[in-house]
Every structure is written in structure tokens, then in C-alpha cells.
Amino acid sequence: MDDTTTLLRFATAGSVDDGKSTLVGRLLHDSKSVLADQLEAVERVSADRGQEAPDLALLTDGLRAEREQGITIDVAYRYFATARRRFILADTPGHVQYTRNMVTGASTADLAVVLVDARNGVIEQTRRHAAVAALLRVPHVVLAVNKMDLVGYDEGVFAAITAEFGAYATDLGLHDITAVPISALAGDNVVEPSAHMDWYGGPTVLEHLETVPVSDELTAGPARFPVQYVIRPQTAEHPDYRGYAGQIASGVLRVGEAVTVLPSGRTSVIEGIDALGESVDTACSPQSVTLRLKDDVDVSRGDLIAPDGAAPATTQDVVATVCHVADRPLTVGQRVLLKHTTRTVKAIVREIPSRLTLADLSQHLDPGRLVANDIGRVVVRTGEPLALDAYADSRRTGSFLLIDPSDGTTLTAGMAGEAFTGHENEWTL
Question: What is the helix (H) or strand (E) element at residue 218, kind and residue range?
Fold first, then answer.
């Protein structure tokens, strides 16, 4: 697949007033991805505020409270494209109290853009965002050192920040880091190269976004097919048709391949694959297809079909890193529902061994509960077996949600297995 057809999902993160929304607005404006009426609206609001130039941050800060306070509160998604690539951008909040929003925006990202104010350097919130990116296994990171115009475009300032961030990020297991000195307000090195920093020979932010390799994680790993619906038309035309519909979460499925149905462990062979009303020999993630199996085995919604010999182990004891997203706390002994792909089971929180302080990666042992925006380790016992991959192996089949059974509120986002890929700061039970 070449760059003309690839899609890059990326998220932005940065502390308050680092210029994150301005960067996103500049990216959209200078890549000519803003509609004329949108730009006119921004120019009008900016003029009403007495600003001489359009405030490009308004292109993403859409909530009234965001505009009034000049901050980002919720995740803002923007879709745009250049001649080389299509993009889905998640502009996430920078405040500590909105860590859960960053987790939401970065959970499916191929790349994270972490902003740093050149005047302030690497601060606690910078380390927090790097840690969240590492927890979520974001493959690529761009360190955008912003407001270089306010430090006289000093190469030494940029080099010092890059070295400090790089050392911390490497300890977390983040290895693909690209640092770019920018001024989002002036447009330096965002879309067009800067005339003020001839000492920098790397790509602009957009150039890097257009050329960074997109992960082939979805097709490279073992096949995973969560069953969403069982199709039994029982019509005169199809009296014996039995198909299992869903979206392939990862890997490739082929006709004639031996598969295992989990959690039952029954085996069969793929007899046919139907995609968009036609039979095909192979299908890959993220296609939505219907599988037909050779044997009449018991398969229900929530079951997982995987290649025989490459199927995940089933378990009722889930050990995971979680980010608590609800305003009500998560406590030891609490009864919850656990939703994993298309399967939802009853569960109980057995332990909360630790809560993580993202600023320095220290642990608070046995906190007893997690409150909104907390990241911690949990042990959950489920009422039925789950076919759960480690999050490090598959972000799609290694993630889950904990839900309040009384009203359906999402409580916690979970990542099964170990937390970080780095060795020096491995965070385990």
C-alpha cells in the first residue's frame, strides 16, 4: 500500500498554553484543509476579540467553554488529507484532570505529537504525556518544540529539550522519536520550512506525518475474529446457511484454514468467506465479513475465532493497567461488567495493587480505589473465560472496558498485561 492510500491516525498532547490547538489550526490552515466559511467564522470571532490575526486555535476548540477559557477540554477529531496521505487527528486536552480524554484520543493513534513550550522545557505534564503514549503503545512520537520564536530560534534550547525528553522517553520504551523545532503561531516548520532555523535540516511536522511508516499491526499479527452476529436466514433459498458475521480485528483469514472457537476450544475449518455479498478466498483486518465453518459447531455472539495453533489462551483472571475515566471511583470488591471486543461478562475487581504517579513513574501501593484520571494496576476476576491477548501484542484484542452494570456507564479503560516496554522502569505487580 503506498502513501496515496494510507490513513494515519495521530493525536496531539501538550500542557496548557503550549500552543497545541494553534498547531493543529496552523496544520489545517497551511495545508489548505479549512473550508472558507470556517475560516471566515474564525476571523470574525478573532476580530471581535480585538486580535489582528485569526486565532487558528478556534478551528479545533469547538466547545463554548473551550473558547471562553482558551483551553481544550474534550477530544476534538478532525479529518483532512493531502496529496500524499489521509489523516484522522485527535486534538486532546493538556490538563491533568483530562488525562482520561488523552487516553481516549491516543488509544487508536499511530503517532502522538507531544508539544513542549521552548521557554519552559520538559515539565511534569510533558513526562505525563510521554508515559501515557508509552502505556498505549503509540508506535511513533513527534516532539514539537513550540514557540521557538520566543527564544530567538536558539538551537541550543532545542538541543537541550530534545536530549532531556529523549532520555526519559527511551526509559519508557518509546524509541521512534522525531524532534521538530516549530513556531505554530508564525508557521515555522509546521507545513513550510522555517527561514529562521537554517541549522535544522529535518522535516517539517507535515512532511513527517506524510512519510512516517504506518503500522501494519492489524494484518501482521495472528488472525482474531470476534463474532458479532450469527446469521441463520432459514429461507427456501438458504435452508442450511449458518454464517458468523463480524469485523476481523487483526491478521488474515483464509478458506481451508483450521480455526479454534474460543472460549469453548472447539475446532473446525473455514469453509467459506463472504464479503459484500461475494465469496472470497482471503480476508484481512479491518474487513467486515461472514465466515462459514465446515462443522456445525456451537458459535455465539462474543466468541472469538482464531487460527488453530495461534489462538490466545483463555483466562478468568485479568491482570491489567487501567485508566479510570468515570467520576465515580473504582473500588476493590466492586462488581462490574467487562466488555472485550463483542463479549460482555460479569466480573469483580479483586485487587488494585498500585496507582501510578505519571510524573516520576512511582507507585502508590494498595490505594484501595482509583478515581477519575487515575492510572493503576488491577486484577479482575470474570464470571466466564475470556480470550484476551496482551495489549503489547494487540491493541485491539488486548484492550477492554469496565462498565457499571446498574446504568451502563463506562468506568475504566483497560490494557491487559505489562505496562511499559522499557526495562529500567518496568511497572509490574
Answer: helix 217-220
